[in-house]
Amino acid sequence: MLATKKILLVSPKPPPWHGGAVAAQMMLDSPEVKEQHDILHLDAKFADSVSELSGLSLKKIKRLGCYLWKMASYRFSKPIGTVVLTPTFYFGSFMKDSLFLWLAWALGIQNRVAWFHMSFVTIQYENRGALAQWYIRKTLLRCNHFIIQSEALLEYFPSFIDRKRCQLIPNGVDGPEELQRESKQEDHVRVLYISNMDEAKGWRVLFAAAGKLIQKYPDKEISVHFFGGATKAWPEEEIRGIFAAGESPGKITYGGFVSPEEKALALTNADIFVLPSFNEALPLTVLEAMAYGVPVIASDVGAVKDALIENEGGLLVLPNNEDALYEALSNLVGNRDSRVAMSEFNRARFLTEYTRSAYGHRWSHALKLINTP
């Protein structure tokens, strides 16, 4: 039975493919949510590609005005009891997103939910001036409910966020019904990176560490494959130039943007997944690697440690540390038994914690608590 009051979700959905948009699409598609709740969706998309996500433009300003008008129109034409908003913590983008938070408060929507896809560290609150801190604090306090991906991320939030108003909903991902381990060649170790090619994702650190790894094992068949969309700072032509000029261009490759089907194939064939980001919340790609039973090496940032259990499902390393990443790669490349054990552990953990169904049930329960009159 659907709740009487409607729920308005203000969030982009893919494309472009990034964590917040994918999570929103999965929530909207969840049978558990659709059966219990009447969801309206305002697709507040400001970019048509990953390279357009940052920066300000006339097109974005026009879209902002349009989305704010649509949100107000929904409020006066439909019985909306709850609005779910997805503010980012890049300061410029937060200023844009803050207008939605203030509008929801001004319109008198009873339940105003901030759904965070990022770590609060990103906004550098403590380093901001007094006026900026005042505005961030006042804006977030326009909300009376908060959805956070993991317990570890709560550590970074300031004390003015009431913990009693926070609910934890980890991301969920799709995975194969069964693993296809028999297709992998035992004498070939495939290392995989999937994310966008923003420098803060650590791809250049991995590129350097991968070169050292291949030099260490000249007689071992190792390949390191990078997939991800180019960014404004790193156009695809420049990225391909770096890979072509590297010491092992045939073994360290860049495949550009990856479709969902290509991602599934890459994860099926991977032996080690690496995400050396400098800053994350609870990255979907780590959960996807776990779903495919792939051992993971990732930076110990954000809530990664809540999902990836060190020495059980993979290895955690310091961010932006080439030597630490190289040592972790050497450890797993040289130890097939550890990789097999980690593969089984990650797959089991995915099935109990991070499936699409578990994600849908958590969201349905949270919305029932929030949207009940």
Task: Describe the structure concisely.
The chain has 373 residues and is of the alpha/beta class.
- Total domain count: 2
The best one-word shape is globular
Q: What is the beta-strand fraction? A: 15-25%
- Please tell me the CATH architecture of the largest domain by its name: 3-Layer(aba) Sandwich
Task: Pick out the low-confidence regions.
Answer: none
Largest sheet: 6 strands, parallel
What is the tally of helical segments?
Answer: 14
CATH homologous superfamily heading of the largest domain: Glycogen Phosphorylase B
Mean pLDDT: 93
Measured between the Cα atoms of the first and last residue, the distance is 15 Å
Number of extended strands: 12
Kindly name the structural category: alpha/beta
Give the helices and strands as they follow along the chain.
EHHEHEHEHEHEEHEHEHEHEHEHHH
Q: Cα-atom Rg, whole angstroms?
A: 21 Å
Helix content: 40-55%
CATH class term of the largest domain = Alpha Beta
The CATH topology of the largest domain corresponds to: Rossmann fold
Work out the oligomeric state of the chains in this entry: single chain
For the largest beta sheet, what order do the strands appear in spatially?
Answer: 2-1-3-4-5-6
Provide tags for this entry.
single chain, 373 residues, alpha/beta, Rossmann fold, 2 domains, 6-stranded parallel sheet, 14 helices, 15% strand
Describe this structure in words.
The protein has helices spanning 19-29, 31-36, 58-77, 91-106, 130-140, 151-154, 203-216, 236-244, 260-269, 284-291, 304-307, 322-333, 336-353, 356-371, and strands at 6-10, 39-42, 80-85, 111-115, 145-148, 166-168, 188-194, 221-227, 252-254, 272-275, 296-299, 314-317. The mean pLDDT is 93. The protein is of the alpha/beta class and 373 residues long.
